[in-house]
Each structure stands twice: as structure tokens, then as C-alpha cells.
């Protein structure tokens, strides 16, 4: 009884805080603004002023640089400068011009550009590898001594004669990033997931990639020369408002979602269904993602399990289209069912988590963990170090195939050609095969880059998962669909230990059978987001059905007190 009272009191407090936030937001939106609104305006104004100053400084620097070129090189060098600019045209002109300035005036001054990058936490090689971590491929050794950002800054200076200063920031979820942008944070290059990319495209917030970025003749264009044909086809086929993802986004990492599980405690059959999340057999032994989109997707899979696994549904001619519709269903009836389901998951799960689930699996606190495939690889790797075997299962209902990709923001890049050149170069540098391998090794996720004619990425996959010559229990695993347009190619087969078809290799490069039942998350419009966010607040803060009348009374009294306090402040401000 005492625990119930504590739970209700906590729920009431949570609801009070949420309602208080909503009231503050409402006043902020009104013509007579509260202190909160003034604070928000100050943040926006400062951010806007900072962005404006940055653009003005960049423009002035570029202008000064161009004047130096004109004074020092004169008409005699005009043809040479124009020739150097032809490969990259508009985007490279800015970089090429300031490069000429730095060398022509003899002063030793190196032109600079600042690039503001925001990426997922722990989602790029930070360097500082131990010597024993060296990846010794037949084609050469690979090791991360410095961070990828530091190495990019050095490479950009050597390649283009420009000093780039990367201001590197991180975010925890797609929603965190969007809120940061909404509140006025300014970045040039960010790396959201596919549904957030779609949202930013729909809101006209993105700068398209330049034509020069897609020039396969440029040897520094590692992305277009190395992106997997499978991934490229997806980015070109999916559109927002008639424009392909590929016009605005360059892929970084990709994967699917599933369940990491302890095979000694969880059966493969149970782990292969989203229904494990509220299965009472695993009470306080499972975790679920602490973000609305991933949790909503899993709930849909569980609720629609009978439909999605029926032979009739699987045999439909437009199966992929139907699957995407079902896994992005936002009808009011479905949202209500999802809320009830997630509340039952909350009562059954060990925790809602974003990152802690990996450690919880390795330490044995939980037996099953809803996970992105990249983090699944990391989790299984860590467990292996402790002689603790974990496995990975993809739910039979459906899996989310996700993509994280680089996009340039109008609020940061604007029409600054020098910044855009640096941003696209950052994408290309991270798409260079040796750097792809460094990032994959460091974070555990799978790059969208297959390497093109460069075989090192497949060589790395074989280095990671290939069986030893004297191993007997082995299995052939074909990943040709990722490396070549011929999905039946026998040139990309890894002979691996048999258990790898259910472990790291399976998570790193999912089988075609698993991908066949994958669906993307589409972006939701404002009305859909509002309905789903309300549902999520209810799930995360309290179970509405369990809230007694007196609990709601506490919330109402607290909201009334907040309104009275804000009204008092407004009256004082008017005098």
C-alpha cells in the first residue's frame, strides 16, 4: 500500500511538472510574455546574433582573401586559378580562392574556416588506440592514434591549404537534436536518423549537396565512389515532396533493430518477437528504448503480431508497402492501444534506457535488451571479453531498418560556399575506407560505405568474423547484396564460425531474410507528433488508468498555483 502511495505521489508530481511546463509554454506563446518567454527570446536572439556575426565574419574573410588573390596573382594567374576551380566549381571556388591567397602573398597566413558539427554521442573514432588494437589487414595496418576530427583538420589543411576548425558537439536522441535546433543552437553539419532527415527536408531546413559532391572523377569524393549500391538505391528511391533523400543526405551508419539476449535465460523463439517486452516470464529482465519512436515501433510490432506473421499478409503483392503502412500507423485507435501496451511494458520492464542497456546486459542485470544492431555488436563484443555469450534476434513481425546520415543546415551553412566545401569534405573524409574501418571498429556500427573498388571494408569484415583455418563448425554467410548490385554474388561470402549467423556478423550485416521484413520509420506531421507525444508523456510519467481522483486533484491544485504565480509576475511587470 505504501509503495502504491509513493507511486501515485510521484506520478502526481511528474504530472504537475509536465502541466507546469505546458502552462509556461502557453504563456510564452501569448502576446503578453512571461519571464520564461523572455528568456527563450533572449536565447533565440543571442543565437541569431551569433550566427549573423559568424556569417558576417566569414563573408568578410572570404572577401579579403579574394582581394589578396587579385592583388598578388594578377591577371597572369587568372587562368591557373580558374583551372584549379573547375573540378569543384561553385563549392570549391571559395576553398580554391583562399588556398591561392595563403600561398601567393608569401605572408605564411593560412585562411581558416569554422565547421560546427553535431553528431550522436560516442559515434566517431576518438583515437588513442592501444598498439594491440591495430587492425592488421593484408592490405596494411589501420590504427586510430588521433581522433577522427583531428585527423580531418590535418587532412583538410594538407589537401586544400585551408585550416578548418571543427567545433564538435553531440546529442542523445533525434528529438534532443531537433529541440536544440528549435531553441536556436546553430550547426553546419548534423547526423540525424532517417525520419528526422525527412522532417528537416519537409520543413525546408536543409541545404542540398552540391553537384561536385557527386562527381565520381574527383578522387577525394570517397562517399559517392564508395557508398554501398544497396544503400544508394534506398536513398535515391525514398522521397519527400518529390525530392530524393540522396539530394540532401549522405549516409553514415545503418542497421536494424532487434533483441540482444542471454541464450541461457531466454529462448530464441521468445527473443524473436516484440511481445517479449511485456512477457511476464521476463519480469524486470527486459529493457526498452527511452525514446518515443523506437518504443512506438516495437509496440506496433507486438500489437499487430498476428497480422504481420500471417501467411496471407506475407504473400501480398505489395507486402513492403503494406508493412510500412502498418509499422507507421498513427490512427487514434492505434495510439490508444499502443499507450496501453507500453504501460504494460513499463510495469514489466527493468528500465527504459538509451545507453545503459549495454552494460546491464554484460553485467547480467537483464536477460534481454531492445537494441540497435550497432550497439548489439558492441554489447556482444564486451560480453565475449568476459567469456559471457550473448546472441541477437530480429523479431519475426518486423524490424526497423534505420539510417543515420549527414545533412547541412540552412541556419548554419546558409550560402557560405567555403563552409559547404568543408562540410562535404568532412563527409568524404569519414567515407574513406580506412576511416570507415576506424569508425566501425570504435563504435560497433556498420558504415553505409562498401568501398567501391577498394576491398578493405570486406577484408575487415572477414578479419572480424572469418573462421580460423582449423575450425570445423563453420557456415558460409553471403553479404554480396551490400557490396555489389548482384545480390547473388559469390564474391562476398564469409566463412564464419557457425554461431556468428546469430551473433555479431548477423547484427553487423543482417541477412537478406531479415531485411526482407524491415520497414523504415516515416516522419510524422505536427498533428501526429502531438498525439504521440501526449501518449508518451502519459506512459513515461504515470499510468493514467491507475491515477485516483485525489491524484488528479493534486495536479489541478498545483497547476492553479503555477498560473497564479505567473499571473502575479505579469502584474508586477506591468508596473
TrEMBL record:
Q: Which SUPFAM superfamilies does the UniProt record give?
A: Periplasmic binding protein-like II (SSF53850)
Q: Does the keyword Signal apply?
A: yes
Coiled-coil residue windows? none
Q: Which domain of life is it from?
A: Bacteria
Region called Disordered, residue ranges:
40-111
Q: Where are the transmembrane segments?
A: 549-567
| Listed name of the protein | ABC transporter, solute-binding protein
